[in-house]
Design a protein that fits this description.
Blueprint lengths: L7 E7 L8 E7 L6 E10 L2 H8 L14 E9 L11 E4 L9 H4 L26 E3 L2 E3 L11 E5 L3 E3 L6 H4 L5 H13 L8 E2 L11 E2 L9 H8 L6 E4 L4 H9 L7 E4 L14 H4 L3 E4 L7 H13 L9 E6 L3 H9 L5 E5 L3
Parallel strand pairs: 10-11, 12-13, 13-14, 15-16
Antiparallel strand pairs: 1-2, 2-6, 3-4, 3-8, 3-16, 4-5, 5-9, 6-7
Length: about 350
């Protein structure tokens, strides 16, 4: 492309300080360096993780910053050493990576890449410790290696999944974080195949196939005790997605002794402590954690996209709103009010 090797000026939503509305600014995006790729973002979605680090409650504040990590785009140019991607390829950026060389990447059981594992405090590129974003020569920090709230961004090649050109980026962009995390936690860590009855503590879950809903506020006893009584001994499998420590403990304590498995997906507050009686383990309940659904971004995510293409996944019902990128603060308002699951922003409007 004509822009390869040159600085690109484009629009980006910059978070200048914690909790303040994002500002649409003109930023300079430097060319990719070794093992980096510059991507033209076409669609980006707002995830609660973006809101969490924008609020900067309970973690190290890093500002000014370009947030965003759920997106779909097209490769604009590649840096030295990049061989598996070329300009024009369709990609999904991912907040964690896969170098394919470390012990974790070579393991069939782990996706916790030693080199490219998520780092929420690092606001620069891993190669040279510099930002690829500037405004009037002053650096703007990156976010989890993706920074997709920009028309162009620079990402390590190991954090990009090459996908089917035919896949609609305005739909599959939501696979680069939340949906894949929950899907993998269920399919790879939690459930065996077959029919099963599902229980949830969220009323909207019935829309997504849950058969039963339990509201903890309707009971005076802990919800784990309620579920054990209602299911004649406990659930076979439980998946916890909120990151609230009480919900995590409840998920573990509500599974059946002997064979019950609880899978933790949500990220708790950094000072949270998981407390349960050791007998819950000795009675052969299993507690598991999962990161990005145990998916390796480059190896596994393209097949998750193919699941959507084969109509095995319904992504549309998760996308409750769509707005132009210029209205990104509307997306934040919708999430803060609890009025939407995913808001996809169109970069070309």
């Amino acid at each position: 492309m004509a822009t390869a090797g040159k600085v690109i000026k484009c629009k980006a939503a910059v978070a200048w300080e914690a909790g303040k509305p994002l500002s649409i600014e003109e930023v300079e995006v430097a060319p990719p360096q070794a093992m980096e790729v510059r991507v033209k973002i076409l669609y980006t979605a707002l995830c609660h993780t973006d809101v969490y680090f924008w609020e900067a409650k309970g973690q190290t504040p890093v500002f000014p910053r370009i947030l965003g990590h759920e997106a779909g785009g097209i490769v604009e140019s590649v840096g030295e050493g990049v061989t598996e991607l070329v300009p024009g390829d369709h990609v999904l950026p991912v907040f964690t990576g896969e170098c394919k060389e470390c012990a974790h990447c070579k393991s069939e059981e782990s996706n916790l890449c030693d080199l490219l594992r998520i780092n929420v405090d690092r606001g620069v590129m891993i190669g040279d410790g510099q930002s690829r974003f500037t405004i009037d020569g002053k650096p703007i920090f990156h976010f989890v290696g993706t920074s997709t709230f920009s028309e162009y961004t620079v990402i390590h090649v190991g954090c990009l999944a090459k996908i089917n050109h035919e896949a609609p980026l305005d739909k599959v962009c939501v696979l680069s974080c939340g949906i894949s995390t929950g899907l993998g936690a269920t399919l790879k860590k939690g459930f065996d195949s077959g029919d099963f009855r599902t229980w949830s503590c969220r009323p909207c879950s019935k829309k997504f196939g849950c058969t039963d809903f339990v509201n903890p506020k309707d009971y005076t006893k802990p919800v784990q005790e309620v579920l054990v009584e209602m299911t004649n001994g406990g659930l076979d499998r439980a998946v916890e997605c909120t990151g609230h420590i009480d919900a995590m403990i409840a998920a573990f304590e509500c599974v059946h002794d002997g064979w019950g498995v609880a899978v933790l997906v949500g990220v708790p507050h950094k000072e949270a402590v998981f407390k349960t009686h050791p007998m819950n383990f000795l009675n052969e309940r299993t507690l598991k954690g999962t990161f990005f659904g145990n998916y390796k971004p480059r190896t596994d995510l393209p097949e998750v996209v193919e699941m959507y293409m084969r109509k095995e996944l319904d992504l549309e019902k998760f996308i409750t709103h769509s707005v132009p990128f210029s209205q990104i603060n509307t997306a934040f308002d919708l999430m803060l009010k609890g009025e939407g699951l995913r808001c996809v922003m169109r970069m070309d409007e």
